[in-house]
Amino acid sequence: MTAPRRLKRNALSNFAGLMTISLLPLLASILYVPLLGADRFGIVGAASFLLTFGISLDIGLGRAVTRRFAQAATQTAPGAPPQDYLATAHLLFLGLLLPFSAAVMLGADFLTRRWLVIPPALHDEAEHALWLLGPVIFLHGFRVMDLAALNGIERQGLSNFLQAGSLAVRLLLSLLVLLVIDRSILALLLTWLGAVLAEMLVIGLVTRHCLRRQGFPGSGWPRIALAGPLIRSARSDGTSTLVSIATNFADKLVLSRLLPIDLFGLYHIVSTLAAAPTRLTAPIAFAAFPRWIAQQADGDRDGFTSSYHAAAQIAGALILPTMIAGLLFAPRVLAALFPTVTVPPDLILAFRLLVIAGAASALNMLPYMAQLALGTTRVLFWQAILSGAVYLPLVLVATPMVGLFLPIGARVLLDVSSFALFLGVAARALLPGEMGRLLRDALAAPLLGAALPCLIGAYGLQGAPLTSLNFALAILTGGFAVVGALFATPAGRRQMRRLLKWRRG
Q1: What are the helix (H) ranges across 329-431?
Q2: What DSSP state is assigned to residue 260?
Q3: Sign of the torsion angle spanned by Cα atoms 213, 214, 215, 220
Q4: Do 267 and 255 meet the contact criterion of CB atoms below 8 Å apart?
Q5: pLDDT tens string 4-31
Q6: What gap in Å lies between CA 203 and CA 209, rounded to an integer?
Q7: What is the pLDDT of residues 120-145, one digit of tens each?
Q8: Could you give the CA distance from residue 137 to residue 357 in angstroms, rounded to a whole number?
Q9: Do 54 and 98 contact (CB within 8 A), yes or no?
Q10: Is there a contact between 116 and 62 (Cβ–Cβ < 8 Å)?
């Protein structure tokens, strides 16, 4: 299979996998609310927040593993076998995850009785559930480096299948337990514990099998001597990752202390939904990352430029119409997702602001990954340091006094300013002399292509009641906007022509 076809296959498989991973929790959340009630659902939202936070603590080790296997595939990476790097990264990451998992268990009483605003009747149930959450977080961490290795050998399709399949099984079992056995958080966490143990074993075995077939036999051994190179390889990405973790979770950390648990659960889902644009661009970035590393190693600058332009155009055609549709139809989306809950107007405004931040963050992903692939990470490092120095004190200190919209507004400002900075980096370091083409084909063209469908949809649905039919029409409008944006970009038109030729053939 040629490199462009493999890149397209990996991008499509990443897109399908990440869309499944994004949609399944939202679907489950819709079902959890009537099964558990608003307060218990809020506790589940807090548990999901802690689980996501724990898995994010890889400090760039996952991408370092991906980079190592991608370099080994081009035979340009002398030194220790990649399997030893994988085993060492496993040990380092689990060493980071173990204290956090233990802290969740030992701090269960503090979280339930002194931090989260939980009704007293649910204190004991929530505390026991958090005791179980600690092992769930630790066992869930075993998959992270294995999936990174699969991405490095360009097996993203399998990686996404394993993630989406394991998530689907876990959510299905959870719903069955809640429906048939017991509608409690404790029963739900016990189900998660059994599911993540099975996932750990399956993903580990599949990864070892794939590595053997790719010429990387054996499981590898952790080596102290490799810890330094791994940490150095992950240093810039790790600094950005740590600041990203802080900026992504600081608002939820503070708001979990201020909001009643039922409203915090809604905010967690709304903020997750608003991050949907990132789920649209991540498949393209993750599929292109190993290819960009190989092109950098081979000195193929023209190949990188062509690949980056195509990826940026497709990403812009997916992200920008989604952002516009989210802004226009926010009340319909939230009313359809939570039909049994009255969504406060402030939460609708918060969703719109978070959609803007999510779109800017999604547009940042391609230049971010390209800088990692090319090894030009100084801007990433200093952007992360300055962002953390400004954003974190503002959110942590001022939010209790000002309220919900301070962290959201700061987040919008942070992501939009980062987008402007990374655009400048793309013009200077990644694509010198190509800024006009990038702005025209990846930003202006998708906006113009999406404008007409969005205007027609907004006019037709203006003042219409919040019914399921009108929600479906809003989704259809967003779909037409994406198609219009794709037709407006050169890379999108090429893909459409190829799709039509394939259908005719």
Answers
A1: 330-337, 345-374, 378-402, 405-425
A2: B
A3: negative
A4: yes
A5: 555 555 555 555 556 666 667 667 777 7
A6: 10
A7: 888 998 999 999 999 999 999 888 89
A8: 28
A9: no
A10: no
Residues in CB range of 104: below 8 A, 6 or more apart: 50, 54, 111, 130, 133, 134, 137
Length of the chain: 505
Question: How many other CB atoms are there within 10 angstroms of residue 186's CB atom?
Answer: 16
- Answer positive or negative: Cα dihedral of 247, 248, 252, 253: negative
Number of Cβ atoms within 10 Å of the Cβ of 384: 23
- The distance in angstroms from the start CA to the end CA of the chain is 20
- The answer to whether 145 touches 93, Cβ cutoff 8 Å, is yes
Host H or E run for residue 138: helix 123-140
- What are the residues whose beta carbons fall under 8 Å from the beta carbon of 241, sequence distance 6 or more? 56, 58, 59, 60
Which residue is listed with tokens 């090319």? 374
d(CA 144, CA 476): 35
Check: pTM over 0.85? Answer yes or no: no
The pLDDT tens digits of the residues spanning 176-234 come to: 998 888 888 889 999 999 999 999 999 999 998 888 888 887 677 888 888 887 777 76
Tell me the C-alpha distance between 428 and 153, whole Å. 30
Six-digit token pair at 337?
A: 């997702």
Angstrom distances, CA of residue 406 to CA of 57, 193, 248, 277, 380: 25, 36, 14, 22, 25
Give me the DSSP letters along 25-75: HHHHHHHHHHHH-HHHHHHHHHHHHHHHHHHTTTTTHHHHHHHHHHHHHTT
Give dist(CA 15, CA 358) in Å, integer. 17
Q: Note the pLDDT of residue 425.
A: 78
Joined together, the tokens standing for residue 345 give 């107007």
Give 3-state DSSP helix, strand, coil % of the chain, rounded to 5. 85, 0, 15
Q: Which two tokens stand for residue 479?
A: 């779909």
Going by C-beta distance under 8 Å and a sequence separation of 6 or more, which residues neighbour residue 225? 80
User: Residues 279, 407: contact at Cβ < 8 Å?
Assistant: no
**Could you give the CA distance from residue 15 to residue 12 in angstroms, rounded to a whole number?**
5
Residue 347 corresponds to which amino acid? L
Instruction: Say which residues have a Cβ less than 8 Å from residue 330's Cβ, sequence separation at least 6.
Output: 348, 351, 352, 355
Question: Where do the DSSP E strands lie in 326-369?
Answer: none
Amino acid identity, position 367:
P
Query: Dihedral (C-alpha) 160, 166, 170, 172: value to the nearest 10 degrees?
Result: 80
Contact yes or no for 137/51 (Cβ under 8 A) = yes
d(CA 242, CA 230) in angstroms, rounded, equals: 16
DSSP-assigned letter for residue 81 = -
Nearest to 124 by CA among 142, 141, 111: 111
The type of residue at 409 is G
Is 60 exposed, middle or buried (CB count within 10 Å of its CB: 0-12, 13-18, 19+)? buried
